[in-house]
Design a protein that fits this description.
With about 200 residues, the protein is an alpha+beta fold. It has helices spanning about 50-60, 80-100, 105-115, 140-155, 165-175, 185-200; strands at about 5, 10, 65, 70, 120-125, 130-135. The protein has one domain: Ribosomal protein S7/S5 (Ribosomal Protein S7), CATH 1.10.455.10. A two-stranded antiparallel ribbon has the order 1-2. A two-stranded antiparallel sheet has the order 3-4. α2 (about 80-100) crosses α5 and α3 crosses α5. The mean pLDDT is about 85.
Length: about 200
C-alpha cells in the first residue's frame, strides 16, 4: 500500500498526526481516488474509516447550514463529486507551490490547529440556563474543523472575484500556519475556547 498515491501524485508516506487524541479519527490510509461511495455509512463511527481527503470533499458538497440556520449555499457544487475533486486538485497544487511540501501533511496540520479542545454547552437548572465548559470529543473536533474551514472558504469566495479554489487554499494555508489574523478557522477556535475558559 505504500506505493499508492493520492490522485497518483501525492504520497501518504511520512504524514503523521501529532495530536494523539485525533490520531484514531484522521484516517491516512493510502488511497488513489478519495471516493468510497458510502461504503462505511452503515457502520458506527463510519467517518473515522474514511480517508481525511474524502471527508473534506464531502464537507464541500454539504449545503451551508450551521446550528439549524442557513448561512450560505454551496449548491453549485452539491452532488458533483468530479467538480469537487477538480477543486481539491487545484487547492493541493496551490499548497504545494506555496510551501514546497506535501499538501496532505499541510491539511492534517491545519486540521490539528483548527480543532477545538473545549466548548460551551447549556443546560437548565431550576429555571435558569447555565453555560458550562465541556471537553470536545475527538470526532467532533475533526468535524468542526472541517466545517469551519470549508464554510469560511465559501464566505471568502461567494459573490466575490476570489475563486473557491483560491479561498480554500488560503484558509488551509493560514490554518496550517496557525495565523488567527488571516484564518477564520483559527479565529473561531480561539473565540470559542476563550468563552469556554470563562464558563469553566
Amino acid at each position: 500500500m505504500a506505493d499508492v498515491k493520492l490522485f497518483n501524485r501525492w504520497s501518504f508516506d511520512g504524514v503523521e498526526v501529532a495530536d494523539l487524541g485525533l490520531k484514531p479519527y484522521i484516517n491516512l490510509r493510502p488511497i488513489a481516488s478519495p471516493k468510497t461511495g458510502g461504503r462505511y455509512s452503515r457502520q458506527q463511527f463510519h467517518k473515522s474509516k474514511m480517508n481525511i481527503v474524502e471527508r473534506l470533499i464531502n464537507k464541500i458538497m454539504v449545503n451551508g447550514h450551521r446550528s439549524k440556520k442557513h448561512i450560505i449555499s454551496s449548491g453549485r457544487q452539491t452532488g458533483k463529486s468530479q467538480t469537487i475533486i477538480n477543486i481539491i486538485l487545484g487547492v493541493f497544487d496551490e499548497l504545494e507551490k506555496k510551501t514546497k511540501e506535501n499538501p496532505i501533511k499541510i491539511l492534517v496540520l491545519a486540521l490539528e490547529n483548527a480543532s477545538l479542545r473545549e466548548e460551551i454547552t447549556s443546560y437548565q437548572m431550576g429555571g435558569v440556563m447555565v453555560r458550562k465548559a465541556v471537553v470536545t470529543s475527538p470526532q467532533r473536533r475533526v468535524d468542526s474543523a472541517l466545517t469551519i474551514i470549508t464554510q469560511s472558504a465559501y464566505r471568502r469566495s461567494f459573490g466575490k472575484k476570489v475563486s473557491i479554489k483560491d479561498a480554500l487554499a488560503e484558509e488551509i494555508l493560514y490554518a496550517y500556519k496557525n495565523d488567527a489574523s488571516k484564518s477564520e478557522a483559527i479565529k473561531e477556535r480561539e473565540r470559542i475556547e476563550r468563552e469556554a475558559s470563562v464558563a469553566r
